[in-house]
Amino acid sequence: MTAERAWFGQPRGLTILFLTNTWETFSYYGMRALLVYYMTKQLLLGQEQASSIYGLYTAGAYFTPILGGIIADRYLGKKIAIVIGGSIMAAGHFMMAFQPFFYPALATIAIGNGLFLPSLPSQIDDLYQPGDPRVGWAYNVYYVGVNIGGFLAPLVCGTLGEVYGWHYGFGAAGVGMLVGLCIYLWGQRYLPPQVRHPRAERGKTPRLQIDRSTLLLLAGIFLAVTVFRSAYEQIGNTVPLWADSGVDKSAGSMAIPMTWFIALNPLLVMLMTPPLLVRWRRREAQGHPSRPARRMAIGAVIVASSFVLLAILSATATGPTPWPWLALFFAILTFGELHILPTGLGLFARLAPPGFGATTVAGWYLASFAGSLAGGQVGRLWSHLSHAPYFMALASLALVAAAMLRNLDGLERRVARYGELRAEKY
Fold first, then answer.
1. Lower CB count within 10 Å: N or C terminus of the chain?
2. pTM over 0.85, yes/no
3. DSSP 8-state class, residue 255
4. What's the CATH class of domain 7-192+212-425?
């Protein structure tokens, strides 16, 4: 363990993980910002086919972590899994620069992501002594790092792709992945040593020990997040299609590139996270802590309201919608996102059984897989519904997720109490 402190009073190792994921996110979202436009404008695919491919790709990128987490926990260890996975992802991004390799490149990125994605955040808890109160906020800090990369990606990769050529944007994504790998390797001295797995030490596979209430809680959150993401994932799928044709993006004599609006989401994450952390800390100090399931439910309701806004704009529009309304949509959606996504990731990581950290975190990404797969099919409705009913359908999905999460609050309280009793016993 390291007692050194850095940003937000957290261990230096968190900064290394933070920066590594910043550049991994830059590479992933840089490519994703171009993907639908590349398919519809360069490959000349129809909207329904492009939405299905987008959904399958993002789903695959979230499915492979469940296999990668098992491989990391049982065979490779987290460090080696990150290095191998990141290298494979970089190769996939560079392959995207060549049109004949389009489908193999998508598969390559998804495979590398499977090893990389669960192994990085599952190291966060290893930086802290048991009972360290800082760990509760570490995942929000880590999420800011994710979104710095997400902010830079459309500005750099998106602008290069739209203005100078697709292969420049995809190539920049590959460079970003290599930068993240270099940071991770350089910062090894700030990370906890890799502990040999019990399989290697005792010649047997460790037993998974998890109580029934915890398993039910994780399963319930998994289902709720799956429903939520089927709506949320439209910010990279059908929302850009609406903005491309239905939003007036002119600012004086300049037309604002669509990818710049996509960058608003991560920029707002960076701006909103510090005051939210201050508010949550103050409420906890006053004896009013926010339970994770309830906080996630509130987030889903806020996201639903952002889609209601788009439905109202679509129903009342007499011409192109002025771009400030699109910016307001992203502000509301991001505020809700901050309540649900980093909270869920942290909950999965903290409830992981010993020796199964990467595997349990992969379960969180498996929910993203299922939600992305469903989101691809939800996106197909874009061609069959008018805009206002479509966005109301997205709001309804988010509200269903909110109700599911709210009903998990009592179960989450029992699991928390069980954990406190175990801590007192040992």
1. C
2. no
3. E
4. mainly alpha
